[in-house]
Design a protein that fits this description.
This protein has four helices and no strands. By secondary structure, the chain is an all-alpha fold. The longest helix is centred in the C-terminal third of the chain and has 17 residues.
Length: 90
């Protein structure tokens, strides 16, 4: 519930710093196995060749930002901000 809006709020395509969005998307692609050790998933992402004509290097520390994204998402899931989902009435 919190993961997808935050994922799509990250830069994508050929925008600068789009590596974070692609790394998090790869985490989803290999879910649920990837959540056992997300650093392995990030390392696999870093080992793959990145294609694109306008590829610019990531500005910052990708590993730190990746872990921050996961930590903030987990924090939001534990302490929701006034959001309730009642799927029993569906």
């Amino acid at each position: 519930m919190y993961f997808y809006p935050r994922l799509y709020g990250l830069p994508g395509g050929m925008e600068p710093n789009s590596d974070l969005r692609r790394a998090v998307a790869q985490l989803l692609h290999t879910y649920p196995v990837s959540l056992a050790n997300p650093i392995v998933c990030l390392q696999q992402f870093l080992d793959e060749p990145h294609l694109g004509p306008n590829k610019s290097p990531y500005q910052g520390d990708l590993e730190t930002d990746f872990l921050r994204f996961l930590g903030e998402t987990q924090r939001l899931a534990r302490a929701p901000l006034g959001v309730e989902a009642d799927f029993s009435k569906v």
